[in-house]
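Predict structure. Chain length: 220.
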Amino acid sequence: MCTRYISPEAGDIERAWHVGGRTPMRWAREVFPNYTGVFIRAAKDSATFERELVLGQWALIPWFAKERKLKFPTCNARSEELAAKATYKLPWERGQRCVIPAESFFEPCWETGKHVPWRFRQPSGEPWGLAGLWNTWTDKRTGEIVESYTMLTINADAHPLMSRMHRPDPKRPPHMQDKRSVIPIALEDVDAWLAGPAEQVAPLTRLAPADAFEGAPAAA
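Prediction complete.
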């Protein structure tokens, strides 16, 4: 599971996704769970499709939450469970999909027996657009409206690179570790991901090939 990423500069987001230039905002460049970051979605209040850049909490707050701070993590969501898991079921059914801009992201490698953070970039140097879901939650006590989002992941047990990440479970065989990978959304697929019908979206929820990732220990 990814629990740390670097957000691009505002100008890089505008150039890559053509969004955000008219709505100046500030957010943390290094993003951890429960920090404020940005995500791209289909504009909520537009009569026609357009993209909008939104500030939100990286940890999706479900509709049934009684308070903003949750007792369980929601910064990542298993893509295979979206339709069944209560936390994500409604956003998934409603098509509340988003793209999370990321200059790079981090995963832990345990091949040495110790936690060694690896940093992953695109070989092209362009920022990632990572698949996510968003939700809007209202605090019933205060009336505060909070935007939030989660990053989708997919099983990577058979992936030559991403299967090397995360601490192995000695009780599980190698092909059943449930190692996870983020899901990049290519620039040409962004609009389909944000607003397309289910038959268009399903093929986009896939494991990216190894050559899509440029990874190395973060200290290197």
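Summary: The mean pLDDT is 94.
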